[in-house]
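Memo to structure team: turn this sequence into structure tokens by end of day. - J.P.
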Amino acid sequence: MNGTFEIKGGKQLKGEITPQGAKNEALQILCAVLLTDEEVRINNIPDIHDVNRLIEILGAMGVEIQKHGKGDYSFKAETLDFNYIQSPEFKKESARLRGSIMLLGPMLARFGEASMPTPGGDKIGRRRLDTHFQGFTELGAEFRYDEKEGCYSLKAKELQGKFILLEEASVTGTANIIMAAVLAKGKTRIYNAACEPYIQQLCRMLNRMGAVISGVGSNLLTIEGVPHLRGTEHTMLPDMVEIGSWIGMAAMTKSEITIKNVSWNHLGVIPGVFRKLGIAMERDNDDIFIPAQEQYTIQKFIDGSILTVTDAPWPGFTPDLLSIILVVATQARGTVLIHQKMFESRLFFVDKLIDMGAQIILCDPHRATVVGLNHEFPLRGTTMISPDIRAGNALLIAALSAEGTSVIHNIEQIDRGYENIDGRLKALGAEITRI
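Reply from structure team:
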């Protein structure tokens, strides 16, 4: 289903929007249901392609699944169908979803074996999986890679706790190693662990299930292995990438928007980075109120030099929002350098913005300089193709602010990460049609 959006841009929007449950948290939490034979109930699951695909894979693996209401499911993984896991169907389905890699840790921990094809996902350059397998082998697993089949397999009679120093603070790698270590024998310490709110959520959920994890929120996690875990209930955080997207959209379209229930305490530096672009916002209990602004001016560094916005592991600025920052900067007053350190090809969508009239110099695959147009020269509507989830949403925001009609093809990429995005934008007054 590779549909198309047609957007009539240049309209001011107004109203309230509620962020969906966090996509990246959902992929971790759903994999963790395999760690127990008891029921795990999860609330605020986003209704998006990537998450729904993972739920379907879990069902096909033999997990009993019940849907209680919107975003409210329970899972019970008493037994797994290992015939299915070895089947071509499993290889095909799991290869289409990068998040499926996080099934390995729980399967290895509980059943002593796991296999997975090379996973898919966004085309944003190399995203190595070495961190995952470094952790598994250090815990005592035997690792094999079948180059012909493109398949990874792991076996372990018993996982043994160990001190693991990660080469990179990989979020999915940290999640996978945590899920393997909670049922390992003895103590595991993970240093240079990712400490994103989603990792913290996973650790808190596992602790409620009977795991013993300390250091949550830091980059040094200590895990005392336990023989088994019990069921629990878990509610997911709102999606911080969506929250950042709506902040940027409000600024680009000069709109007055309230973003509801944002879980402020888990947003880290995100509001501050948007404020550096000159975007006004107010905290109203757990909501963000963004007033309509005719202009917003990019701050400079204290010495008067041009602002640089760069991504970094948490608590630094999330790479998933750099494409939004870049789009928002096109209509700011001033200049900013966007430095995308963590992925290789995420800035290649800027040619589409240049076609729309944006003033951007792509310095190299990692850096782009944006000279803001200060809303004096609106972007022009055009036809484009969404290359990945985050760039797709950034282009959608550009189209909403542009003069004239824009067409975005391959919107399945946007649907992978954003729930009913056209319906929610229409409720704010956007003219967007799904073709």
